[in-house]
Write a structure and sequence with these properties.
single chain, alpha/beta, disordered C terminus, 14 strands
């Protein structure tokens, strides 16, 4: 990203998303005809502006105001990207003021019957799955074993995979299904399903530990290691078809292509850079979003779109709870339970009572509260917390000090929730 872009994108996007809430689209069906109002996809709208030769700086300033501090030397491609970010950055969600304590989270779990769990890598760390970014992690090891890799993340680039699949299959050997057991966090999600409370588990993980934990209501947002498909003919097979090749560090070849005298590589069905998310993600989310009565985000930094937008597409009155090692400054949750997810779910299960027992090592001796809604468990990353005027103390009821950020109750939510951004299609001036 252009260095100027990172410095202006945040404030521009924030201001733009608020202004766009009031923008409308006017479609003229002919001269003198009445105009109608409808929504336009931001990507289509930007494409229209490019096609008619619009100047991105003028378009951007018309939306966010002439006094916006845009550096004069930004290239047009950067301006178009910034404009797209403005159009696709949703307004911030307002926190629900009547939910703040750990016990209230327990009560919500007890009374909810359509819980959506969005899970990430944080719930699999305790299983022994190698991490990516530590000094001894996957990326560091691959950099040494494959010095020709331009970037360790290139092993997840579909074009690089087509040129050299060996680095990826070296990684695949370390994470192959059957090598690891589910964590207490996985078993907690499984318990939600067993008790008829789980609407769906949307997981960003590819390790298939959800299946091992007995979770059937699962959507693999980034695909998974459950199956593999040929990159040439799309023939699909069970992942264990390529198990022997992976552990022998041979690139698995497609038998269908071999029979026809051609060649194709069998790639596990995970989403690479340059590939679209599975259609099931979008279809299932469209079906589920109107049914959710509680959102639990577990072990995810929510930095990758479109999965990071899941909390934002839900109705603002739906309670949202974060279970993570650090808070997420770009998101707004009603309650933040910060620390090791296994320890946190063990405490929740202890409070939920009989029938919620899961195997977990130890319980927190004390829970500290920051502000009114953030509760610290063992493993919390303290540096990520903005304490403001509050100080941590033992949890008592809803917390020890009021939250300095503005809150809004559910009865006010319909008035405070911004409308979806709409764009003025008449802005198609040529240069």
């Amino acid at each position: 990203m252009d260095p100027h872009l990172s410095s202006v994108a945040g404030p521009v996007a924030e201001e733009g998303s608020q202004l766009l809430a009031e923008e409308t689209v006017s479609h003229q069906s002919g001269e003198g005809s009445e105009s109608s109002t409808s929504e336009i996809d931001p990507y289509d709208w930007v494409r229209q502006q490019i096609e008619v030769g619009a100047r991105p700086r003028e378009v951007l300033l018309s939306l966010v105001g002439e006094d916006c501090p845009l550096p004069p030397d930004l290239e047009e491609v950067v301006l178009w990207r910034l404009l797209l970010q403005v159009l696709t950055t949703p307004p911030p969600r307002m926190r629900l003021s009547h939910i703040s304590s750990v016990q209230q989270v327990v009560d919500l779990i007890q009374t909810s019957s359509h819980i959506l769990v969005l899970s990430g890598a944080g719930i699999s760390v305790s299983c022994g799955i190698p991490d990516f970014r530590s000094p001894e992690g996957v990326y560091a090891r691959l950099s040494q074993e494959f010095p020709e890799l331009p970037d360790p993340q290139a092993m997840f680039d579909i074009q690089y995979f087509r040129d050299d699949p060996r680095p990826f299959f070296r990684f695949a050997k370390d994470i192959f299904p059957g090598k690891f057991s589910p964590s207490p966090s996985h078993r907690f999600i499984g318990a939600l399903e067993q008790k008829g409370k789980l609407l769906r588990n949307y997981t960003q993980n590819i390790d298939t530990l959800e299946k091992a934990a007995g979770i059937s209501k699962v959507v693999y947002c980034h695909g998974s290691f459950a199956t593999a498909s040929c990159c040439e003919c799309n023939w699909k097979t069970d992942i264990h078809t390529i198990e022997e090749d992976v552990f022998s560090q041979r690139v698995p070849e497609c038998p269908r292509c071999t029979e026809k005298g051609s060649s194709g590589v069998l790639k596990p069905d995970i989403v690479f850079f340059g590939q679209s998310l599975p259609a099931t993600f979008h279809q299932q989310l469209e079906e589920d979003k109107g049914k959710v009565d509680l959102l639990l985000v577990m072990g995810s930094s929510l930095k990758v779109r479109p999965v990071s937008l899941v909390p934002i597409v839900l109705d603002g009155c739906i309670p949202q709870v974060l279970i993570n090692r650090e808070p997420l400054s770009h998101m707004t949750f009603d309650v933040e339970l910060i620390g090791y997810s296994d320890v946190i779910v063990a405490e929740l299960c202890r409070r939920l009572g009989q029938g919620w027992e899961i195997e977990a090592k130890g319980l927190p001796a004390e829970i500290h509260t920051v502000g009114n809604h953030t509760h610290l468990f063992p493993g919390a990353i303290m540096e990520a917390l903005d304490r403001g005027n509050s100080s941590p103390g033992p949890e008592v009821g809803g917390g020890t000090s009021p939250d300095s950020r503005e809150e809004v109750g559910c009865d006010c939510e319909l008035e405070s929730r911004p409308k979806r951004a709409r764009l003025d299609s008449s802005h198609t001036e040529n240069s």
